[in-house]
Amino acid sequence: MEVIYSICSKLAGGGIGDTAYQAVRGIYRHDYLKQVIARGSGKIEIEKSKVRKVWYPKRMRLPYIPAWRWYGLENLYFDGRVAAILKKAGCDVFHGWNGHSLRSLQEAKRQGAITVVERASSHILTQMKLILEEYETYGVKDEPERAEIIARCLEEYETADYITVPSQFVY
């Protein structure tokens, strides 16, 4: 079995990067890891030939793009690069994180791979409901997330064969 794992973060770089690294390390130790695709990596115990870094410019180089737009563009770019890598590399199982894996999931499914999407938080609609309740409490007059990002998360749920979650609350 060959697994390609993708995370639009620094692998072993704190937060979800640490969570992803623990999963990747387990896959690697069982000799299933074909490749991990990430934005970079901290100190890891995985041979370098198995790690593919996707470079993306820092936001400070393009300060005229609003932060909310930058985040979405970064995820779209990363996903497009991963989908292109999958097109050439192929795998038996593709595992990507929610919010930046739609094209990758679609490409992996097209090739007949089993697809998994990782959701680190509650369902996107539950998350938005909870955030909006807090916004109301504190008088915040903004949308917590853009409609296109919510739609993308929902489509990834529908596309993936499996969804992994970290807790009973998230489930």
What does this structure look like?
The protein is α/β, with parallel strands linked by helices. It contains 5 helices and 6 strands. The chain has helices at residues 16-29, 67-89, 102-110, 124-138, 147-159; strands at 3-11, 33-41, 51-53, 93-97, 114-118, 162-164. The protein has a 6-stranded parallel beta sheet with strand order 3-2-1-4-5-6. Strand 1 (3-11), helix 1 (16-29) and strand 2 form a beta-alpha-beta unit. Helix 2 (67-89) packs parallel to helix 3 and helix 3 (102-110) runs parallel beside helix 5. It is globular. The two termini are 27 Å apart. The model has no long low-confidence stretch (mean pLDDT 92).
Keywords:
single chain, 171 residues, alpha/beta, six-stranded parallel β-sheet, 5 helices, 6 strands, globular
Short description:
The model has no long low-confidence stretch (mean pLDDT 92).
Beta-strand percent range: 15-25%
Biggest sheet details? 6 strands, parallel
Helix content: 40-55%
Which class of secondary structure composition applies to the elements? Answer: alpha/beta
What low-confidence regions span 5 or more consecutive residues with pLDDT below 50?
none
Rounded mean pLDDT score:
92
Overall 3D shape: globular
Count of strand segments: 6
Radius of gyration: 16 Å
Give me the number of helical elements: 5
The helix/strand order is: EHEEHEHEHHE
Note the gap between the termini: 27 Å
Task: State the oligomer.
Answer: single chain
Provide the spatial order of strands within the biggest beta sheet: 3-2-1-4-5-6
